[in-house]
Amino acid sequence: MRLTLLAASVVFLTATGPARAGEAACWFEGGVVVVPAQVAGIAGDFILDTGAPRTLLHETKAQAEGIEATELAGAVRVAGLALPDRPVGVADLDVRTWNLPTAVAGVIGADVLRDFVVDVSFRPCRVRLSRPGEAPRFGASRVLPLAWEAGRPTAPARVSDGARTLLGPFVVATGANVAVRLADDLAAVPTAQPPDELYPDGRWLAELGSLRFAGRTKGRLGAGLMPAEGDVAGVIGGPALARFRLRFDFPAGRLQIASAPRSR
Among 24, 64, 96, 158, which one is least packed by beta carbons within 10 Å? Predict the structure, then answer.
């Protein structure tokens, strides 16, 4: 099954407290970054997702800890960062965690991360959070502008099915487990109706011809669909991002990118 682009155009949009910053080891499994953290007093492994607008507790974990509310406030602690009284949602995250080998307590989202400089390396997996002006030297080979759409950071990328090419803003999501998802008003599969299983709550993937991001092209990617959301063309997830080291300089509005070290 191949994913094809529709004949449509996309317009690219241009555009604290006393927290200690630090570094933490993480895991890159099932296409997502997982980091130890504590949210609203609940400690565990959390998906670190730059592409998620909200920080969430997994409903199953919250209920096991005696939490019945769907909205609460609590401290968030991750990689040396400690923020009190952050709004936290409670939601069923089974769709996001079914392919992970261990239980996940929730998601650390961009609402917590966006005041900081966030460094992500995938292999070996490390996450660092720094206050503006305090991040160590990074040595980026590419710098892309970061914009925001519905609480999620976006950067420009180009996808192609071999016949058509689409350039637009893509959410850059360290917690998305598929290389690319495309908005369903911009892509199609060779059936009259896109299969439900290609959406985030499904388990099928199609094949996309290529993705060009940060000056590098990757061909024949696993790809899915997502409901159209504003001007976002799609999402770039962990399987496509893992060949880079990333610095989300959220305060400066830029994404710095360097090549990941070669595996020995």
Answer: 64
228 vs 47: CA distance, rounded Å:
24
CA distance 215 to 190: 30
Q: What pTM did the predictor assign?
A: 0.91
Q: Mind listing the pLDDT tens digit for each residue in 104-150? A: 999 999 999 999 999 999 999 999 999 999 999 999 899 999 999 99
What's the DSSP call for residue 12? Answer: P
For residue 84, the SS3 value is strand
Q: What is the DSSP string of 174-209?
A: TT--SSEEEETTTEE-SSSS--GGGSTTS---EEEE
C-alpha–C-alpha distance, residues 93 and 102, integer Å: 13
Q: What would the pLDDT profile of 34-65 be if each residue is shown by its tens digit? A: 999 999 999 999 999 999 999 999 999 999 99
Query: What length is written for the chain?
Result: 264
Query: How far from 238 is each of 59, 81, 146, 223, CA to CA, in Å?
Result: 24, 23, 17, 12
Q: Which domains does the chain have, with CATH numbers?
A: 4-15+140-259 (2.40.70), 22-130 (2.40.70.10)
